[in-house]
Design brief:
Accelerates the degradation of transcripts by removing pyrophosphate from the 5'-end of triphosphorylated RNA, leading to a more labile monophosphorylated state that can stimulate subsequent ribonuclease cleavage. By secondary structure, the protein is of the alpha+beta class. Helix content is 20%, strand content 29%. The strands form 2 sheets. Strands 1, 4, 5, 6 and 7 form a 5-stranded mixed beta sheet that branches. It has a 3-stranded antiparallel beta sheet with strand order 3-2-8, with no helix packed on it. The longest helix has 13 residues, at 57-69.
Length: 168
């Protein structure tokens, strides 16, 4: 796609959740539309989603958790201080995100998971975004991401490192 199309398209407002279990590990899920072998890079990501019109980002992150993983049994522990953006690669521009956005502008939150593994229900939505999930070390997060999201995940691995420890 041309650079002029990229320049004309806005960023989609979005929130993301770095969900920590009591052992200090994070929730990652494999995208159902990007099937790949276990451990292959690119198919794993953190829960994230769009912010509705006039919706508070902190409210949106809990709503997105409930929609994407079937539970909002979590509390916010921290927030990355800046909005982070990524651009879609050329081959996805005009295709992904309904073709209406150049990428996403994201507000990221660290959350403490208050539920149990049984509360996670990827099939809660009739069109699940994910087909598998697991707990991972925060440090391995960037290696799991698609290349265009990797810089954001590298920032989050540093920004939220203080939460990646067992909780009392």
């Amino acid at each position: 796609m041309s650079q002029s199309l990229r320049d004309r398209l806005p960023y989609r407002p979005n929130v993301g959740a770095v969900l920590f279990n009591p052992q200090g590990r994070i929730f990652v899920a494999r995208r159902a539309d990007l099937p790949n072998a276990e451990g292959a890079p690119g198919g794993w990501q953190l829960p994230q989603g769009g912010i509705d019109e006039a919706e508070d980002p902190a409210t949106a992150v809990l709503r997105e958790l409930a929609e994407e993983i079937g539970t909002d049994r979590a509390e916010i522990m921290g927030e990355h201080p800046d909005w982070l953006t990524y651009d879609l690669p050329d081959e996805l521009l005009g295709v992904a995100l309904g073709g209406r956005y150049r990428g996403q502008k994201q507000r990221w939150y660290a959350l403490r998971f208050l539920g149990t593994d049984a509360d996670v229900r990827l099939d809660a939505d009739p069109h699940p975004e994910f087909d598998a999930w697991r707990w991972a070390d925060l440090a391995e997060l960037p290696a799991l991401a698609v290349a265009f999201k990797r810089p954001i995940y590298e920032i989050l691995a540093v920004s939220f490192a203080r939460f990646a420890r067992p909780q009392p």
